[in-house]
Amino acid sequence: MDRTTSFRTNAKSDGIRIILRSSLENLMWMATMNPWSERSAEDQSLFNPAFCALLLRTACKNYPMDAPQAQPFPLPLAFFVLPIVLNQPLRQRLPTLRTGITSWAASNPEHIAGFGDRAREMADVTREAIQFGCAQNWLSVSGAGICVGSAILRPDPPKLPSDTDDVRACYSAAKFLGRWFPPLTSPATLMSLFGVAP
Question: Domain range spanning residue 75?
């Protein structure tokens, strides 16, 4: 894929659709984003593209790639990671790896009910994180998915003295999601389960 090609999501009432966007369209989209200086302190902290890109990298790093016919972390599922990880009530309800996604979704209808809206609202944040991560070589786009980029981070993810318990919990949840999403299950199946149209 050409390095100038990026991804966008079309927010529709029935879910999120992933389509390719040319570099010209990318520049037009970036012009519609609020400049960094005009974003609230909370948005700058919580939706920092560097932090969000590292969360996506953590999920990709833990996605099972050793299964036969395994693929990179599916791009549509990348739009699940941040809405789950950055939402504390939902993050705290994540199960152990022994619990399947279908069982967990059936047991947590209150979290599934609003997930489609949350994913749509955070689509720009996820897109910005993917673009930032690719620019830093923390992530790379491969086929219909994303994977860990060529940059070597030690430790990976980075550990900073300023990291709070909340930051560490976000990294832990991203790691969990990477391992929890079944590698051979169709992304459309999981998207339907979470109320997001493929």
Answer: 6-193
Q: Is 172 helix (H, G, I), strand (E, B) or coil?
A: helix
Query: pTM of the prediction?
Result: 0.78
- Give CA–CA dist 198/18, Å, rounded: 8
CA angle 91, 94, 95 (to 5 degrees): 160
Is 198 part of any domain? no
1 falls within a domain: no
Written as one letter, the residue type at 171 is: Y
Q: Determine the 3-state secondary structure of 7 from DSSP.
A: strand
CB atoms under 10 Å from CB of 159, counted, come to 11
Cβ within 8 Å of residue 156, ≥6 positions away = 57, 58, 61
Q: What is the pLDDT of residues 150-183, one digit of tens each?
A: 999 888 888 888 888 999 999 999 999 999 987 7
Q: Which two tokens stand for residue 7?
A: 């991804």
Token couple for 47:
């939706």
Listed in sequence order, the residues at least 6 apart from 132 whose beta carbon sits closer than 8 Å to its beta carbon are 49, 50, 52, 53
Number of domains in the chain: 1
